[in-house]
Amino acid sequence: MTQTEERVKKPKKKVGNQHSRTITLQVRLSPPLRFVGELMARHQRRTVSSLMESLLAEKAASYYLPVVSTEKAQTEHYLFGERQTQKVTAQEISERLWSAEDADLFAAMALFLPSLLTAEEHALWQVITDIPYFWNHFEIHIENPAGQVLDKEWWPLVDYRGLNRERLREHWLLCKAILDGEKPLQHLKELNLPPGKPVEKPDYYPPIKKVRSDQ
């Protein structure tokens, strides 16, 4: 096996983000496969790097992944643990979810493609979903068994629409350090953050309330 470096072009965004410029990937190819790539590239009068980029884009149009594709489905996953997925091509997913921000890409994967998360990513995401600061909230009633309203509280809207991406970006350096093993998850849990932003309950969200037993 030989190791070669291939360049893959990415859409240009603002300077300073690893997704905003061409990046270098190290690709392992067997000598015969490398030779095949060189033959195809010569035939098309292009570089091996350009050929590989083209083949990847072509494959993405027919490569299907299981996606939790709607906010309603994401809500049911959060509330009931039910993961309703649809098969969507990698190209369509990229067109819908691409961002130059690492925080946005991570959140999009966690919400739309949760089955692709590593154990470390899943643990981080669980903490993020438990921190009100990162989510919009709507008001719900707390009732007694007779249906009388006793109190109200704010309920997190844990789906793509409810995520406050700007706030997640603010703390992404810490999140990235946690994923890289440089800082413990506890550092994120211990942040003293204000509550989430209030919004109206979306139409797709199921009726929800809390029942408090009589004392």
Task: Spell out the helices and strands N to C.
Answer: EEHHEHEHHHEEHHHE
The main pleated sheet reads as:
3 strands, mixed
Would you tell me the overall average pLDDT? Answer: 88
Distance between the termini: 71 Å
Classify the helix fraction into a percent range. Answer: 25-40%
Strand order of the largest sheet: 6-5-7
Quickly describe the structure:
The chain is 40% helix and 18% strand.
Molecular structure report:
- The protein has 215 residues and is of the alpha+beta class.
- It is built from nine helices and seven strands.
- The chain has helices at 31-43, 48-60, 71-80, 90-97, 102-112, 119-130, 165-170, 172-179, 186-189, and strands at 2-8, 23-29, 64-67, 86-89, 137-143, 149-156, 210-211.
- The strands form three sheets. It has a three-stranded mixed β-sheet, with no helix packed on it. A two-stranded antiparallel ribbon has the order 1-2. Strands 3-4 form a two-stranded antiparallel ribbon.
- Strand 5 and strand 6 (149-156) form a beta hairpin.
- Helix 1 (31-43) packs across helix 2.
- The longest helix is centred in the N-terminal third of the chain and has 13 residues, at 31-43.
- The protein starts with a strand and ends with a strand.
